[in-house]
Specification:
Elements: H1 3-19, H2 23-37, E1 50-59, E2 62-70, E3 88-94, E4 102-109, E5 116-118, E6 124-128, E7 131-140, E8 145-152, E9 160-161, E10 175-179, E11 182-187, E12 225-228, E13 241-242, E14 245-246, E15 264-271, E16 274-280, E17 287-292, E18 299-306, E19 317-321, E20 324-331, E21 342-348
Parallel strand pairs: 14-18
Antiparallel strand pairs: 1-2, 2-3, 3-4, 5-7, 6-7, 7-8, 8-9, 10-11, 11-12, 12-13, 15-16, 16-17, 17-18, 19-20, 20-21
Organism: Belliella alkalica
Pfam families: Glyco_hydro_43
Keywords: Carbohydrate metabolism, Glycosidase, Hydrolase, Polysaccharide degradation, Xylan degradation
Length: about 375
Amino acid sequence: MNLKSSKSILALSAVLLFSSCGNQDKKEDSETVVEAESKFLSKPLISHIYTADPSAHVFNGKIYIYPSHDVESVVEEDDSGAHFNMRDYHVFSMESIDSEPKDHGVALDVDDVPWAKRQMWAPDAAEKDGKFYLYFPAKDHDDIFRLGVAVSDKPEGPFEAQPEPMKGSFSIDPAVFQDGNEYYIYWGGIWGGQLQKWRTGEYLSTGDSPYDDEPADDEPAISPMIAKLSNDMLEFGEAPKEIKILDKDGSPILAGDHERRFFEAAWVHKYNDKYYFSYSTGDTHNIAYAIGESPYGPFTYQGVILKPVQGWTNHHSIVEVDGKWYIFYHDTELSGETHLRNLKMTEMTHNADGTIEMIEPILK
């Protein structure tokens, strides 16, 4: 079912409901509709296509959003996320934080990426010297996730992909952070994101289940990755390093601590000279964060920024616009389907002590 047809069914259902009820029933049903609409903190930003995993940036005085593009899929749902079978990227721009996002159309399609086979998952973008770089994961022809780069003269694209993936790249969810003149790329995601299969430094799978290669619960959790980018922004400029996420006593977060361990969706922002590493906890559905003194970490766990949204996944970005901070995220309000998501945004507050005020995306 596409977005338009689902809306039509909802509209028809509403007509049938109201035509079969008396005045009192109409009032009660109306109140129910209002309650249902108000249970979400924020409204969808985009409704004509399904979008998720938003990476937001300010380029040339405008807000640009680089999301993944959810589509109907005939692929059967499984624990590896095969039903998230996206094939292209659209770029959106906003003149201000309150304006309607403009869809600039397809910026990059899987058919335009020679090395990519399928599953164009969550991307990010960066700007350097007037050039714009789109970083994205996709499965290669061996069904192994790699990271790719595409380049454009405009923030909205279209982007031209490099003929090969980044050398030595693996897993998913690239996020680029600029700190002065340096650019760092963060990435990684377990389960369907395959990060657990790279624990030896090479792709190694001991079974068909995405859980087979995880550490024991009492071992340190699998770490996300970081590397400084090369000067041309097209490759790793150094050997990738693991990021340590620590408890406040200095011990590593453990693999069995699903409330706090890294799962996917790395993002970094800087506030008051501190580095904030935020991420999804996956099957516990939080966006959590940790604070460090360096882009490399280690990062000390602080708490939750965004509580679970409607839908299985939770993925975000954080950006400063006109002196205020905003978190972009997604849920499934428009479709009710895990793999057909819609973008949202709300203001985010740093407290006086540097912690972040927790956000409830679903109102009680």
